[in-house]
Amino acid sequence: MITIKKHLSRASLLLAVVAVAGCSGTPTYPPAPERTGQYDWNYLVGPGDSVNVFVWRNPEVSGTFPVRPDGKMTMNLVEDLQASGKTPTQLARDIEKALGKYIQEPIVTVIVGGGIGPFDQQIRVVGEAAKPQALNYREKMSLVDLMIAVGGLTDFAAGNKAYILRTVDGKQERLGVRLEDLLRGGDVSANVDMRPGDVLVVPESLF
C-alpha cells in the first residue's frame, strides 16, 4: 500500500510539473496591440545631442553647440536655454525669441546630430536578454528590431512570459508579448510595435 501511495505521489508531482511547464508558454498579461507600422512620432532633443544652429545672415551667431547633461545649451548671445524635450522646430522658435533681443527678426534653423534623445524616450530591455541595455527609439521600431539589437534571448528566458511596460495617458500598462513564438518559432504575428519609453521585461523560466 505504501509503495502504491509513493507511485501516486510521484505521478501527481509529475503531472503538476507538466501542467506548470505547459502554462509557461502562455502570456501572462493582455497582448500588446498588433503591429501597424504607423505611429505619429517627432524626435525630441536630448542631453548629449549636438545642435547645429543656423541663423540666416548672421554667421557670427551660428554654430554647433552641445546639449549639456542638464538638458540646456549655451550658444552665441544665448545662455542656459532649455533644449531637451523639444523638437528641433520648437527649439528654433525659442532661439529666435531669445535672439530677438539682439537681432531684428532672426530666422533660425536647427539640425540635430547624435540622435540620443531624452532618457524617458529610450527603450530599455531588462531580464533574460543576451545583452540587456537601453536603446534609442527609432521610427517604426518593432519588437524584432529590438531583439536583434540586444542579441536575442538567453537559454533561461521565459520568452512567452515577457511583457512591455508602457505608459498610456499617464497610467502604466503591462502588455504581454510572445518572444519565444517570435524568435524561435518564426511567428511574425507575434511582432509588435515599440513605443518611446517602453520597457521590455524578459523573466527567467522556472524550468
From TrEMBL:
A Pfam entry, by short name: SLBB
Protein name: Polysaccharide export outer membrane protein
Record key words, sorted: Signal
Polysaccharide export protein N-terminal domain: residues covered: 41-112
Soluble ligand binding domain: residues covered: 123-172
GO MF assignments: polysaccharide transmembrane transporter activity
Signal peptide: 1-21
UniProt-listed InterPro entries: PEP-CTERM_polysacc_export, Poly_export, Poly_export_N, Soluble_ligand-bd
Keyword Lyase: no
